TrEMBL record:
Pathway(s) this gene product operates in, as recorded in its UniProt entry: Carbohydrate metabolism; galactose metabolism
Any Pfam family hit: GalP_UDP_tr_C
Record carries keyword Glycoprotein: no
MF-aspect GO terms: UDP-glucose:hexose-1-phosphate uridylyltransferase activity; zinc ion binding
Catalytic activity: alpha-D-galactose 1-phosphate + UDP-alpha-D-glucose = alpha-D-glucose 1-phosphate + UDP-alpha-D-galactose
Binding site for UDP-alpha-D-glucose: 32-35, 65, 81-82, 170, 176-178, 185, 330-331, 335-336, 342
Highest taxon of source: Eukaryota
Organism: Lachancea fermentati (Zygosaccharomyces fermentati)
Sites where the protein binds Zn(2+): 56, 59, 125, 181
Protein name, per record: Galactose-1-phosphate uridylyltransferase
PROSITE patterns: GAL_P_UDP_TRANSF_I
Stated family: Belongs to the galactose-1-phosphate uridylyltransferase type 1 family.
Keywords in alphabetical order: Carbohydrate metabolism, Galactose metabolism, Iron, Metal-binding, Nucleotidyltransferase, Transferase, Zinc
Amino acid sequence: MTIDTARFDFNDNSHRRYNPMIDSWVIVSPHRAKRPWLGQQETPSKPDVPEYDSKCYLCPGNERATGPRNPDYTSTYIFPNDYPAVKLNQPDYHSEKDKNSLEDRFFKVQSVKGNCFVICFSPKHNVTLPQMAHNDIVKIVDAWTELYLKLEKEAKEEHKPYKYLQIFENKGTAMGCSNLHPHGQAWCLNVVPYEVEREFKSFHGYESKYHSHMLKDYVVLELEKRDRIVIENDSFIVVVPYWAVWPFETMIVSKTQLASLKDFNEQQREDLASCMKQLTTKYDNLFETIFPYSMGLHQAPLNATAEEKENAWFHMHFYPPLLRSATVRKFLVGFELLGEPQRDLTAEQACERLRELDGNVHYLQHL
């Protein structure tokens, strides 16, 4: 069967898009957005929480679950996670398996050491990033940077086994957030996590083949096409990636190569905060709800070698699950678990919807 490519409609015909960052594919099925929805519906997030909650273990002055009491902090506050996913003080694992055995092939184990931190964005229990002042978001970026530098110094001077700092935020109960106080986390490991390592390998392969950084060329291309740019300032673009999996997935990418937060100047920290505030405001305005997402920073490892710095390019991923409304979310199930991911609207359609929204005035300000 032959296909008349002149009649192919990217907004109606199914197709696959390649993600060069992690060497994967996603099926795009824009025609499926027309189907009726009778599946699970989420409960919309409602902004009816107090500024201070005496039962919240993240609010200033409150006692945490394991006993320590928070100080009366007035800005961004970081403390070691009381229930860390990885531990610093534990024995190393030594395998006793025969190196040529089937058991060694299939039952591999590697020690993981590190530390985990909670990052309270604000002392106010009832705000989220889009509701915070720009200057307060700059303080979050500053706190991230200070933590990066602190752990890098500890790794170098105190020989702590720190290699990579993964900073992230899970926002909303739909993303498994167990406490609605505005906060993120940082996990510092003695290894580079798998998803980040996949990107680094792709970046290295692209550099070897084309003698240019992948994200440098991608930024140039997106600035030329302008079909997927949601927000732009002097330092960053916010783009719905051509290969996005989640319905309104976005990526903040630096226009010039910044290996990590410690390479930022004051203006770049200001510009990153501006992008974060505008983007999350647009998210909330899209369905007039406190929009859930998982977001995280990808950057150079701690105490990076010259090669690792050359390979790194600062960017942030935002993975929000909502699809059609404040109550209908995207699930990765069935074919998407067994075959490959699939989405029901194109990246360009998602960008157009986000781009037309106000990124400066939050919908709650109209209530």
